[in-house]
Amino acid sequence: MSDHDAVLVASPSQTVGPFFHVGPGNSDRLGRMAAADVPGEHIQLRVRVVDGDGVAVADALIELWQADAGGTYPQAPPEGMPLPPFSGFGRLGTNDEGWCTFDTVRPGGRGAGDLREAAHIAVCVFARGLLRHLYTRIYFEGDPMLSADPLLSLVPQDRRTTLLASRLHDGTWEFIVRLQGDRETVFFDL
Amino acid sequence: MTDRRSLEAGTQPPLLYPPYRSTVKRAPAQPLIRIPERYTALAVPLYGYLPIGETDNDLTRQHAAEPLGERIIVSGRVLDEDGRAVPHTLVEVWQCNAAGRYRHRWDNHPAPLDPNFSGAGRTVTDANGRYEFVTIKPGAYPWGNHDNAWRPAHIHFSLFGYSLATRLVTQMYFPNDPLCAYDPMYQSVPDERARLRLVSSFDLARTRPGWALGYRFDIVLRGGHSTPFEGRV
C-alpha cells in the first residue's frame, strides 16, 4: 500500500503575510526564552533575514525550537504540574532592519554514537512571499563537534558556513538568514 | 507513526510562484536538503507560557463593545492524514476587520479601523480535535501585487500538531468567493483537491438561530498517528 492510499489530502501551506503582528507576532515575551534561573550559558542571539537583493526582510517571523543546556528537549509535565522554566520555544517578528533578538541559553549537543549531533537550534522562517515556511538550523561557530555532525555532513562543504552563528566581540551571537542569492542559507526539507 | 510522510506532489504551493510577486526575491534558489527522519524526531515544543484566556477564542468579546460586521462561528476539527483527531494542539488565528482593515501600522487601506476589534484569537483543540472561534466575517481588501488586486476574505490559521514537521500556517477562505479565482496565493496550490481544503463550508448545524452563521473548516496536518497523543501545548 502506498503512502497515499486512503489518506486525506493535507491542508496546503499559505503565506503568513505581512500582518502577523496582529496575531502570532504580537508579543515580545517569546523572545525572552530563558529566565535568569535557567541553567546554562545565557546568550543573546540576533537573527537577521535578508532577501535575494540583500535587502532587509522587515516582515519575517522567526521561530526557534531548541534543547536546553544539557541537550534535552523540555517535556510536558504530568497534568496539573507546573511547566519547566525553560520551554525551548521562541518566536519574534523582525524589525524594520530585518533583525530580531532572542535571550536564551546555548543548547547542548544531543544523541550518542553515529547520531551524535552538534549543538544547534531548529529555525522556522515565515514571511510575506514565503508560501511555505523554511526550515534551517543554527550551529555555533568554533564548536569542536561541528566536524562530526551527521547533518552538516549532508551539506556541501562550501555551504556549511551559512548554518553557523558567529560570536561578536561583545559576546552576542549573530545569524543571518539569506533567503536567496549569494551565500544563500541552506534550508532543509523535513 | 510518522510526521514525515511525503506529501503528494502538487498539494503544497511551490516556493517560487511569480504571479505572487513577493516570492521572486524571497524564494530560495538552491534545492532544499532532505534531513533523514532519525534526526528530526523533534516533539511539539512546550508552548504553555501564554495561557489561553477566557475570550481568546471569541474575537467579538475582547473589547468594551461588539465589533461591527457579520458575526460568524468558525469551527472544525484538526486531523492527521489518516483522519485521526489531533487533540490538545494550539490553534491561532488572525484576520482583518469587517471593512478589510488590519490593526497594523503597515495597513494603509483607506477603510475604517474598528476600536472593538483586534483580530487575533487562540484556542486549543479538545480531545476529539475540535476547535471553535466566534468572530466577524473579514472583508476583502486591495493589495499591490498586480493591477486591481484584491485578497479574498480570509482568516489566517497557525497550528503546531505533533512535531516540527507538522507545523502549519495556512489561510481559510469562504465558500463561493469569486475573488479566489484571481488570487495568486490561493491559486499557487496546483492540486484542486488541496485548494478546496482551504475553503470553509457553510454549516447550518453550527449556525446559532437568531445570532450567527456557522462555517466549518477542517484542517489536515501532515503525517499519520496510530498512538494517542498525550502531550500538551
The assigned structural class of chain A equals mainly beta
> CATH superfamily membership of chain B, which one?
Aromatic compound dioxygenase
Radius of gyration of chain B: 18 Å
Q: Strand order, biggest sheet of chain A?
A: 3-2-5-6-7-8-1-4
Poorly predicted runs of 5 or more residues of chain A = none
Helix tally of chain B?
A: 2
Under CATH at level 1, the class of chain B stands as Mainly Beta
Portion in strands of chain B: 15-25%
- Largest interface, counted by CB within 8 Å of the partner chain's CB: A-B, 71 and 81 residues
Oligomer: heterodimer
Structural class assignment of chain B: mainly beta
Q: Which overall shape of chain B is indicated by the principal axes computed on the Cα atoms? A: globular
Largest beta-sheet characterization of chain B: 5 strands, mixed
How many strand units of chain B? 12
The rough form of chain A would be described as globular
Distance between the termini of chain B: 19 Å
* N- to C-terminal distance of chain A: 22 Å
Q: What are the segments of chain B in which pLDDT stays under 50 over at least 5 consecutive residues? A: 228-233
Here the CATH topology of chain B equals Protocatechuate 3,4-Dioxygenase, subunit A
**Percent strand of chain A:** 25-35%
Walkthrough of the structure:
The complex is a heterodimer of chains A (190) and B (233). The two termini of chain A are 22 Å apart. In chain A, 44% of the residues are buried. With 190 residues, chain A is mainly beta. Chain A has a single domain, classed as Aromatic compound dioxygenase (Protocatechuate 3,4-Dioxygenase, subunit A). Chain A is 0% helix and 29% strand. Chain B has 233 residues and is mostly beta strands. Chain B has one domain (21-221): Protocatechuate 3,4-Dioxygenase, subunit A (Sandwich). In chain B, the strands form three sheets. In chain B, strands 2, 5, 10, 11 and 12 form a five-stranded mixed beta sheet that branches. Chain B has a four-stranded antiparallel beta sheet with strand order 4-3-8-9, with no helix packed on it. The longest helix of chain B has 6 residues, at 192-197. Chains A and B meet through β5 and β9 of A and β1, β3, β9, α2 and β12 of B. β9 (188-189) of chain A pairs parallel with β1 of chain B, so a sheet runs across the interface.
